[in-house]
């Protein structure tokens, strides 16, 4: 599942509109729209502001296919 579909699904589960989610998360409506449309370059701090409402956050995750320590 992509981040964009994850956010959209979570928003719909809690029955929020995009403007309502933007207000609750403290970000702009444009940011929510771009996030849900899968824009590739978004500020990670703002993504986490949105995800915190659902009890999640994103961060650095080790690449499983890499052999680097």
Describe the structure.
The protein is mainly alpha-helical and 69 residues long. The protein has one domain: 434 Repressor (Amino-terminal Domain), CATH 1.10.260. It contains 4 helices and no strands. Helix 2 (18-25) packs across helix 4 (44-52). The longest helix is centred in the first third of the chain and has 11 residues, at 3-13. The protein is globular and about 40 Å long. The mean pLDDT is 91.
Average pLDDT reading: 91
The CATH architecture would be Orthogonal Bundle
N-end to C-end Cα span: 27 Å
Fourth-tier CATH superfamily name: lambda repressor-like DNA-binding domains
What structural class do you assign from the helix and strand content? mainly alpha
CATH topology-level fold name? 434 Repressor (Amino-terminal Domain)
- Unreliable spans are none
Outline, from the CA principal axes?
globular
Major β-sheet annotation:
none
Number of strands: 0
Please work out how many helical segments DSSP would assign. Answer: 4
Question: What is this entry, summarized?
Answer:
This protein has 69 residues and is mainly alpha-helical. Helix content is 52%, strand content 0%.
Explain the layout of strands and helices.
Elements (H helix, E strand, L loop, with lengths): L2 H11 L4 H8 L3 H8 L7 H9 L17
Helix pairs in contact: 2-3, 2-4
């Amino acid at each position: 599942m992509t981040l964009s579909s994850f956010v959209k699904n979570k928003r719909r589960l809690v029955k929020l509109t995009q403007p309502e989610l933007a207000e609750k998360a403290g970000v702009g409506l444009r940011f929510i729209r771009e996030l849900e449309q899968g824009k590739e370059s978004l500020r990670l701090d703002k993504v986490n502001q949105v995800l915190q409402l659902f009890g999640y956050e994103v961060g650095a995750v080790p690449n499983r296919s890499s052999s680097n320590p």
